[in-house]
Amino acid sequence: MASLLLTTIVDVGKGSKVLKIARKHGITGGTIFYGKGAVNDKLLKLLALTDVKKELVLTIGKEECVRETIEDLRKCLKLDKKGQGICFTMGIGQYVGLHYEEKKGDRDIMAKGEQSMFELITVIVERGQADDVIDLANDAGVEGATVIHGRGSGIHERSKVFAMSIEPEKDVVLLITKKSDTAEVIQLIDRALDLEKPGSGVLFVQPIMDAIGIYRED
Fold it and tell me: Does residue 58 sit in the same domain as residue 134?
C-alpha cells in the first residue's frame, strides 16, 4: 500500500493533539516544527496581529491510515471552519526508515497529485526575507503563508545544499497556491530575489493531493 506525507498547520499548542489523532489511526511517528502564519488582512495589519504562532506537523503513513486521520482532524479540530488550520497530503516516491510491509512509492498516487487544484511552493531564503516573499505572494493573490525558521547542524558549521549555506539564519516559507497561479507567484519571487544567482535562495513546487482548510476569496 502506498504511503502519503500528511502536513498539518495549526495554532501553537495543537500539534500534540494532531499526533495523538494520527496515532489513533496507526501513524506512530511525527515531527512538529514551530513557525508563524502570515495573514493578508487589512484589519489585522492595522492591529499588528497578522503574525500568528503556528505548529507544522509532518506525519507519514499508509494511505488508508492518512485518509482516516484527515477525516478525524476535520472533525476534532474543526478544519472546515476558516482559520482553524490546514492539512494536506502529498505522495512520496521513495523513503527510508518507515517500518511498513511495502517500501515503495506509488506512481499512480503521484500522478493524481499532479492533477490537483493546489500546489505547495516552498521558498528557502536568508533570515529576514520571509516578509518580502509573503508580500510578493500577496501581490499574486496568495492570501496566507507559513514561515519556519531553518536550523543547521550548528552555529559554527555550514553545509552546502543547492549551493546555499544551510545554517540557523534561514527562513522557510510555505505557500499554497492554485495550480493556475503558481507560475505567476514563482515569476514574481524569482525576479525580486534573483534566485538564479547562487546563494540567493531556493524555490521548489510540490503537488498537493487532498486539502482541508484552504479558503480563497474568489
Answer: no
pLDDT (tens digit per residue) in 19-74: 999 999 999 878 888 877 776 655 445 444 456 788 889 888 889 999 999 999 99
Are 148 and 174 in contact by the 8 Å Cβ rule? The answer is: yes
- What is the per-residue pLDDT for 83? 83
Distances (CA, A) of 218 to 80, 142, 146, 153, 178: 17, 11, 21, 43, 11
Contact 143, 44 (CB under 8 A): no
Report if residue 182 sits inside a domain: yes
pLDDT at 151: 47
Question: Residue 195 and residue 201: Cα distance in Å, rounded?
Answer: 5
Quick one: 39 and 125 in the same domain? no
pLDDT at 209 over 50: yes
Domain with 168, as residue range(s), is: 95-208
CATH code of the domain containing 44: 3.30.70.120
Q: Is 159 exposed, middle or buried (0-12, 13-18, 19+ CB in 10 A)?
A: exposed
71 Cβ contact partners less than 8 Å away, ≥ 6 residues apart = none
Helix (H, G, I), strand (E, B) or coil at 181: helix
**Average pLDDT, integer, range 135-161:** 68
Our count of domains for the chain comes to: 2
* Domain annotation covers residue 156: yes
Please check whether residue 118 is in contact with residue 177, taking contact to mean a CB–CB distance below 8 angstroms. Answer: yes
Closest CA to 175 of 146, 213, 209: 146
Q: What is the pTM of this model?
A: 0.65
